[in-house]
Write a structure and sequence with these properties.
It comes from Moschus moschiferus. Residues 343-372 have a biased composition (Basic and acidic residues). Residues 342-379 are annotated as: Disordered. α6 (200-231) packs parallel to α8 (275-299). The two termini are 17 Å apart. The protein has helices at 27-46, 54-68, 105-129, 145-169, 174-195, 200-231, 235-261, 275-299, 335-339. With 379 residues, it is mostly helical. The chain is built from 9 helices and no strands.
């Protein structure tokens, strides 16, 4: 089965030793540094471990961040920052400028929840931590507002795709499916708009993906809206809605080809090879032919020249980010532990000598072979 969601490359990070010679003055501080090294290494290993599940990832992340809390916030639960806040610099690559098969119901729920959690993490970083950076994020870098906003919205849109697939599988009312598809298309349009002012040299591929998904779900919205109109004996309007679905589906097909030919970060997925994609083309064609037949024999209604305005609101199924908070500081963080870090003994930084630029090796991502395309069913 070909892949469905576009992904930028995993961010790579330079090694961090947590060795603070002279600053660490006692065994409690030494243990914190040792535990940070091992928990960070474990977390990074899981990024490319195909056997990793969400629970394993959450436990590893909580373990690392609970230890890192002592470097970020004061231990007295005030709003003050830790005295160790600026002792360590971290270096990461940028996803743009640096270097879903058929699933079961349980897996679908896991994907859905994971994407909502991811949106919540991005939102939390945007609102609570990025504003505190000493140096504002450069334009086009991962922590810049436009990219963070695009990640938040894309996570919401992709989570909503799972909702739509489930609604189709359970044969929910066409009006609900049309509304969900319309809202999802709007999500993709907003994500694309967030990236619209970035340099095309490194944003074009990502934007092609967002644009094709916007067209695809707009086609879905018009297709199911046409079914709703037909059920209300508005056959002429139904035909016009299906014609609009046909137009947007053709746009999505063309954009799939353009996306595949566009150079940029991240592996190239193949949405047009997905059964979920191809089934929509057949559904639009068959539904339009049915409407035209019934209009010729029963309704004899005029087909409007203008497409119907989609002003659809889903009454449920819309995705919101899951609120995120870092875990509380590790129990190993005590006033005595913090006192064992003596910043007055920190070696002086000889900034007069130029330092060579550190190279961060890219993450070697696992090669996940596409499975046989059995369709995007959720059962």
């Amino acid at each position: 089965m070909t892949h469905w969601f576009h992904r930028n490359p995993l961010k790579a990070t330079a090694p961090v030793s947590f060795n603070y010679y002279g600053v660490v003055t006692g065994p409690a501080a030494s243990k914190i540094c040792s535990d940070l090294r091992s928990s960070r290494a474990r977390l990074l290993e899981l990024f490319t471990d195909l056997s990793c599940n969400p629970e394993m990832m959450k436990n590893a992340a909580d373990s690392y961040f609970s230890l890192l809390q002592g470097f970020i916030n004061s231990l007295d639960e005030s709003t003050q920052e830790s005295k160790l806040r600026y002792i360590q610099n971290f270096k990461w690559t940028d996803t743009l400028q640096g270097q879903v098969p058929s699933i079961t119901e349980d897996e679908a729920k896991e994907v859905h929840r994971s994407l909502k959690i991811a949106a919540g993490i991005f939102k939390h970083l945007k609102e609570s931590h990025i504003p505190k950076l000493i140096t504002p994020a450069e334009k086009g870098r991962d922590l810049e507002a436009r990219l963070i906003e695009a990640y938040i919205i894309q996570c919401q849109a992709e989570a909503q795709e799972v909702t739509i697939a489930r609604a189709i599988e359970l044969k929910h009312a066409p009006g609900l499916i049309a509304a969900l598809a319309y809202e999802t298309a709007n999500f993709y349009q907003k994500a694309d708009h967030a990236l619209s002012s970035l340099e095309p040299a490194y944003s074009a591929k990502w934007r092609k993906y967002l644009h094709l998904k916007m067209c695809f779900y707009t086609a879905y919205a018009y297709c199911y809206h046409g079914q709703t109109l037909l059920a209300s004996d508005k056959c002429g309007e139904a035909i016009r809605s299906l014609q609009e679905a046909e137009k947007f589906y053709a746009k999505a097909e063309a954009l799939c080809k353009e996306y595949g030919e566009t150079k940029g970060p991240g592996p190239t997925v193949k949405p047009s090879g997905h059964l979920f994609f191809r089934k929509l083309g057949n559904l639009v064609k068959n539904t339009l032919e049915k409407c035209q037949r019934e209009n010729g024999f029963i309704y004899f209604q005029k087909v409007p020249t203008e497409a119907p305005q989609l002003e659809l609101k889903a009454n449920y199924g819309l995705v919101e980010p899951v609120p995120f908070e870092f875990p509380p500081p590790s129990v190993h963080w005590t006033p005595e532990t913090l006192a064992a870090f003596d910043l007055t003994k920190r070696p002086k930084d000889d900034s007069a000598k130029p330092k060579p630029e550190e190279v961060v090796k890219p993450v070697k991502e696992p090669d996940i072979k596409p499975q046989k395309d059995t369709g995007c069913y959720i059962s």
